[in-house]
Amino acid sequence: MSKKAIVLVSGGLDSATVLAIAKAEGYECYALSFDYGQRHNAELQAAAQIASRFGAVEHKVIRLNLDSIGGSALTDSNIAVPVDGVSDSIPVTYVPARNTVFLSLALGWAEVVGALDIFIGVNAVDYSGYPDCRPAFISAFQQLANVATKAGVTGSQFQIHTPLIDLHKHEIIARGLELSVDYGLTVSCYQANAQGEACGVCDACRLRAAGFNALTVTDPTRYA
Amino acid sequence: MSKKAIVLVSGGLDSATVLAIAKAEGYECYALSFDYGQRHNAELQAAAQIASRFGAVEHKVIRLNLDSIGGSALTDSNIAVPVDGVSDSIPVTYVPARNTVFLSLALGWAEVVGALDIFIGVNAVDYSGYPDCRPAFISAFQQLANVATKAGVTGSQFQIHTPLIDLHKHEIIARGLELSVDYGLTVSCYQANAQGEACGVCDACRLRAAGFNALTVTDPTRYA
Most exposed of A79, B46, B85, B162 (fewest Cβ within 10 Å)? Predict the structure, then answer.
């Protein structure tokens, strides 16, 4: 019997690669996305296509009005998305407690379907400024999961898988290409338009383009 | 300057008492409720009244379709609410990872308003069967909060306050009455009707009635 895993799928390049990795490791994958007041909806459409392409058992989208909390350029239209390069400090595109919230909901679904494995595409190389992308955060969440749940109190152990955490963008893309990920389906841009076309200047676009350049592979991104 | 706190307010007896305690301790309170597919909406109306009565700076309701995850009698209409007394095992009214999700969202709002204190009315006496009502869970969440956030990584310490965790129901009510909580505003029943009238037979109704009986105080609950 194959093991079940919850895989967080955003519609972006990283999580598409994670889904391919989880599938390659033999997991029966439950893809989870969030409609949390992102500026655009193109990435949720991309998430659905990616989940379908990689044979996810189910793709669930949880609605969650994080925009009512505010505090991030990704959910608050009063804060501009930066286009002047990645800095070392915590960026305004950081969504407060986002990965804590996403993993919590993944944990709830894991309990319902009987999964003990959760895959998330956090990356501590390009996102060193996000507190909730670091190994210390993942480790603390895993400890929490094991006291927070029915399964945990009865002795089962949850594992939070972060296969990309130490990889550079070009290494992520190389791994995905080995696993036949069609990156043309993915949307990375922080401010993609309704057709999923990228701006080319935000941090996410710059990181993605640099990754493809480093590999001398053609980037299938569609630019506006 | 008064300190800010996020206070989880469900509309029930316990969290109303917690809000009164936080206020009495001098906190500027931000009341947070969740519309998570509960069977009835009466408790959210109660939450709004309670937040207003205790002078919360703001009352925010976050919508969250936990019912799409299922797995609990409180969010899944296919699972019956038990009316045959509290058992020692994990009850079907347990909502998978609920307090993890709620505290995560409270943490996100705390980051935005600049609060380091979060109050939650968990209780390990009456809810010993819920993994996420135990001190070990709260402790693990507090550790997570301090690595998950901007504030945490810059050296500030979050505190998760659980003033009711060791109290019996009659002690909670006694504390609230000292602080002038109007329990007539609160709704405890798992299956209250649209007017906020209680069933009188579910676990939550039984625990509440026993608490008032033990104090020989009149219970202002309105029964259907």
Answer: B85
A99 close to A132: Cβ distance less than 8 angstroms: yes
Distance CA B91, CA B64 (A): 22
Between positions 105 and 144 of B, the ones with CB within 8 A of A are 105, 107-109, 111-112, 131-132, 134, 136-137, 140-141, 143-144
CB-nearest partner of B144 from A64, A144, A149 = A144
B8-56 pLDDT tens trace: 999 999 999 999 999 999 999 999 999 877 656 888 999 999 999 998 9
Measured between CA atoms, the residue of chain B closest to residue A62 is B65
* Helices B13-24 + B42-53 axis angle, to 10: 20
B50 strand-pairing partners? none
**ipTM of predicted complex:** 0.87
pTM of the model: 0.89
* Percent composition of chain B: helix, strand, coil (DSSP 3-state, to 5): 40, 10, 45
Q: Tokens for B212?
A: 């008032």
Can you list the domains of chain A with their CATH numbers?
A: 4-215 (3.40.50.620)
Q: Is B94 on the interface with A (CB under 8 A)?
A: yes
Helix (H/G/I), strand (E/B), else coil: A16: helix
Residues 6 or more apart whose Cβ sits within 8 Å of residue B143:
A140, A143, A144
